[in-house]
């Protein structure tokens, strides 16, 4: 199928089938039906030929690379429920990518295949409550101790997206070293039913479009057999980069769609309202907001594509993904904020879909690494690039 | 009572009595008990000697002028429920001011006295759904037609804060001219029980701390007797300025308290968390956010006091109040936004009170005139001041 | 020659031959020798095989398209004298492009060929003193009246870059309609020696790297024969777009190089200085400036390449060039401003090359259309794209 | 004399006598005549009764406190030459203040009296070339060693404002401790004619309105007798604060005047130019720039007055002066930058006085402590105020 055709089909499906539900439930996916809704929409997406644009072809998807998926993900992200409907939502999308890169044949059969077909959901358990791993992953405190036939995990996880209802977890735990030192992390695969895993409360965050919420997860003497180690022991931080680089870019793609919708709603509203003897859209200060939104959307898209090209070429692309993520996290929120301002009272109400989009976009400046951590990393790389590798 | 003593009592009351309820109900005043809660807290505030700092002394308040009330309102605003608890919340606070300035002796007895004593609530009905009065008040469409003994009002109002549960309304209606032309507006007092007044749905906005919500109100052949005209016929826009100048400043005072709380919570959090081998509060990028918050809070307070001095000197102060409102609307939201960023994942959750404060502050950039309208007005005044009155 | 090789040669030439002179004369090209310096450096560039990257092959250049020339122009722009040295400076570069697109065979021989070979310089005379053509080109007042065998031009031009020393002018004059109405402009070619053309004073602007300055030019009964009309009569505004779209992008390329230099100088300085017990480059607030510079440079380059791809595909690209120009005009100045701040007192002195770069970049937010005019145009296009062609 | 009268006289003098010379010489005080011009204008200012608003009455000035001097200094700063003309320019103004606070009776007679009467000029020699004292004053490397009857000073100073032509210096030198450790600095008074003091080259900075430039000064075995120690030994950093708090505020006052002039020139220009069928001053994006300028000017003035009230009350005011300096340094440059943008091509030329004002204002973000150092200090104070003195 041509890329243009896939985009058109996605646009049609999102607007006709997904947006009406999204708007009816003000972007609250749990209130709208949760997994039942997801399953229903995914079936329809399959029928429409648009399921899993990035899912490997062997599992029923389109197997698109990063550059190809960008416009599709943006089209899906136009609705807050679109990513779930097309099976390209976080965290499953990133977990599929990681398992596809690193999983053993047995792990592929047991975990990747049903996840890729959307027969189950998954979660990625890295973040911990303070003073554990967060912006600074080296603070990792969850421990994995060797026992006969495998490992025993103990620790607390927090902000685990999609944990409630996940069939399995990818768990990051420390296999060597002490909190505050790098290295020594390993990834473990574990069914949610493993004894000792307990999904706790949903942390009540601003955003509401993630299936399974952001949850606390406690691990108490969780046994993981040797063959469920994902990749090599002590290789966890390296694999996290395998997952996080592309995962940040797919986040950008999806949120780009949401921000674009906020902008288009605002422009349409500004065209249809009058004040001070003019359409709002003809007033200079409103034109400035419209133009700044166009600039922010275009720059986000341009930086995204630069990073996607590098990733598709097999590079790790740490600089270009950090730049794209940081810029997007701030720019897309600005877009929603200006859209809100253009619509006045309606903008801050749920009469328009702008407030709900703003509510989803703000946390993106924090999730997947706050802007400050990315800036720190960008600056260090810049210093080395300019002043030499030893500086 | 000395000013310092009143501030201390207010701080104590807010922290011990009001904040716990505010935090338990995540700043949702309706969920926390609505008017029943207000009445209970106001009784306690009376016992504590801090009720109605700005309420005229004859009605049981402290009769403070603008400069005196600024630190008290800020202290009350430290909790989202504080303004209701001390009887200094919008819109009653502005309506008390207006009635005190403009009301006839009979109107004072019937409307001002019970309102000032907090025996009832009120609402100010000016804004209309598009294409009516909003940012551009000259678009006013609600009509008042002369009939025997008074006036008959017809029209639709929208975003009427506190309408649900209000005992009476101050209604702005057109008594001459056509929508799009200035002049010709008049203010009318009417009990909420007057036939033809219907309070419709609450507009579901981001903010949740206003008693009685933001409602639609329909007016169908509402009869208002002559002696319930507030001030002179066709003088409505002039009186609106009497109300709006100070009302904008008291908004700034209250939101200044809320923003300060978000900042203090974030600084405390940053002192107690570590990453990258340091307290968060010792990292340069976090220090920059802390400093920028201090600067924004200080500048807001400084501009506020300039405007209050002018108002206390009997000036209309259109320039200084517009500048203070515009700066505060943007700066205080920046403060909450940075506070959120400093706290990472917790910042975007309701584990901390920052997200709820941000949710209240954002609409302030729109309510009481969006920044763009104030900038337009500031620019026009600047041009006349610099290039001469005829330019 | 491979693109990579051309870039390497350019970098070497700029650093070894051009930067030393640039720095010795603090970026003042007139003080450094003016045309004599240009001719000398161009000869060396020819010998080095890097002359005229964009000049058509038939005239001795490399004939690179927009995408190919971007990195070369950036490498040349690393020195403020680089563009002149490689014969890719404004306004000649844009005039070559325009003549190549629109010129008749005779015009190519007489004007394009010697210009492309850098045997002469040229100027583009569109802007006028107020109340004439500036940000709003429809205000064009210079008139061209039909006379026997051609046209007679009268008017005043201002800010004509490169006028002093130019061998010929492309003059925009009104051939129909009145100032304030669109249409009716025509482009005329005229040798500088034509009777009635007088190059007046250099307007003393902040920037000093443009050969021939920004001059006033008066036109008094200047006769232009029919065969020196460039393109069709009344087609001037359309041709201006042919010139201005690419010309704006080549400006961005060159200034990108200059801004990058300011950034690299500042990072190197921050690596080598210590304060507060740390290298400056390890302080969080400095890292934030470094990272923001990297982001601004990357986003400028990304937006530039989007526009170049469209232009190379034969599109007019009005939206993407306006976005890239507006973003670059502001972002590149921010880069220089942050570089200056990172270097403290040295940053604001001519001990480092940052102040001179800042001085060149600031006017770019005004030249070739101020940001506000581009935003107005972007907003209008966005409204039509989103709300329909008739909105 | 009433404060209002003094302001009026100052405005008249500045506009009639000082601005014409300032504009003729594009703000270059050396080109305009240097000390000869200063002496001439100061004589006229004395005749006009406006000399030395802050100079102690015993030395012929008005002895105004900080709050009183603010509007006068702003009025004087309206011209870049105004501060010198009224004898309220840096560094003499700050040195007069310091000597008046700390000087012994003999030091007052010998140094303060002739300086206060403007019979000589002075300089404050603290800053050193890297790796010495700059943003981080603890890096102080200039040493003072005890010798018979006094001290012997050795070291290099840099960016010493007003050094060329100064009759005496206040020199900060280390009397104990090592570079990188606090404490141990002492202030020394020394005539410029003392053997071993050599004023070197002027550092070529962007700004040109400071008499005597910013110079390198070398100290080679400079003998300072005991009675020329200013204040106590090892008390230098504490005295520096006595000088710097108020000196920062008087900088803000003066630059406020300059920024206001840029703004007024731009507004006047925008009223008189037309584009797109409208006066520029009626276009929304221009109105936004005008309004933002008014807001920045008003906020600067409001923060300044808060700090001045504290200083006049005898407080050290480290928080409010740091906030006012940081805000002003950035806001006033924004004002000049927007003024430049409003005026287009003329704005970046010396046809209008905006470019020269921008050139003076930019370094203020660096001089007297860059914004980053002030933010660091503000953040540390905020942390202690919010989280307790031991945090």
Commentary on this structure:
The structure is a homotetramer of 391-residue chains. Chain A is of the alpha+beta class. Chain A folds into three domains: 87 residues, Orthogonal Bundle (Butyryl-Coa Dehydrogenase, subunit A, domain 1), CATH 1.10.540; 113 residues, Butyryl-CoA Dehydrogenase, subunit A, domain 2; 151 residues, Butyryl-CoA Dehydrogenase, subunit A, domain 3. In chain A, a hairpin with a 2-residue loop joins strand 9 and strand 10. In chain A, helix 7 runs parallel beside helix 9 and helix 8 runs antiparallel to helix 9. Chains in contact: A-B, A-C, A-D, B-C, B-D, C-D. At the A-B interface, strand 9, helix 10 and helix 12 of A face strand 9, helix 10 and helix 12 of B.
Secondary-structure blueprint of this entry?
4 copies of one chain form a homotetramer.
Chain A lengths: L2 H22 L10 H14 L17 H12 L4 H5 L5 H11 L2 H12 L5 E4 L17 E5 L2 E12 L6 E7 L10 E7 L5 E6 L11 E12 L3 E2 L5 H37 L1 E2 L2 E2 L4 H29 L5 H25 L1 H4 L6 H8 L9 H17 L4
Parallel strand pairs in A: 1-4
Antiparallel strand pairs in A: 2-3, 3-7, 4-5, 5-8, 6-7, 9-10
């Amino acid at each position: 199928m041509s890329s243009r055709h896939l985009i058109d089909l996605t646009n049609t499906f999102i607007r006709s089938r997904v947006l009406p539900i999204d708007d009816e439930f003000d972007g609250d996916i749990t209130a709208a039906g949760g997994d039942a809704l997801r399953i229903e929409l995914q079936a329809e997406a399959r029928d429409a030929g648009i399921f899993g644009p990035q899912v490997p072809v062997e599992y029923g998807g389109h197997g698109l690379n990063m550059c190809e998926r960008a416009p599709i993900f943006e089209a899906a992200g136009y609705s807050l429920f679109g990513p779930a409907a097309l099976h390209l939502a976080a965290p499953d999308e990133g977990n599929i990518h990681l398992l596809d890169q690193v999983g053993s044949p047995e792990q592929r059969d047991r975990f990747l295949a049903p996840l890729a077909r959307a027969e189950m959901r998954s979660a990625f358990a890295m973040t911990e409550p303070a003073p554990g791993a967060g912006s600074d992953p080296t603070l990792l405190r969850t421990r994995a101790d060797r026992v006969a036939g495998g490992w025993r995990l103990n620790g607390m996880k927090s902000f685990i997206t999609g944990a409630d209802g996940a069939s399995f977890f990818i768990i990051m735990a420390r296999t060597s070293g002490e909190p505050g030192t790098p290295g020594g992390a390993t990834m473990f695969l574990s069914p949610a039913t493993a004894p000792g895993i307990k999904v706790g409360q949903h942390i009540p965050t601003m955003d509401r479009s993630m299936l399974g919420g952001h949850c606390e997860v406690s691990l108490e003497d969780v046994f993981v057999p040797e063959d469920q180690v994902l990749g090599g022991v002590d290789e966890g931080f390296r694999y996290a980069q395998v997952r996080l680089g592309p995962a940040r870019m797919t986040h950008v793609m999806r949120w780009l769609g949401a921000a674009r919708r906020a902008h288009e709603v605002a422009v349409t509203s500004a065209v249809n309202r009058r004040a001070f003897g003019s359409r709002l859209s003809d007033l200079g200060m409103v034109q400035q907001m419209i133009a700044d939104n166009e600039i922010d959307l275009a720059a986000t898209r341009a930086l995204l594509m630069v990073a996607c090209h590098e990733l598709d070429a097999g590079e790790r692309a740490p600089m270009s993904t950090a730049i794209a993520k940081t810029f997007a996290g701030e720019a897309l929120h600005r877009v929603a904020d200006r859209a809100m301002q253009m619509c006045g009272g309606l903008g801050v109400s749920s009469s328009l879909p702008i407030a709900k989009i703003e509510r989803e976009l703000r946390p993106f400046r924090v999730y997947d690494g706050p802007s400050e951590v990315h800036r720190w990393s960008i600056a260090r790389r810049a210093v080395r690039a300019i002043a030499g590798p030893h500086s």
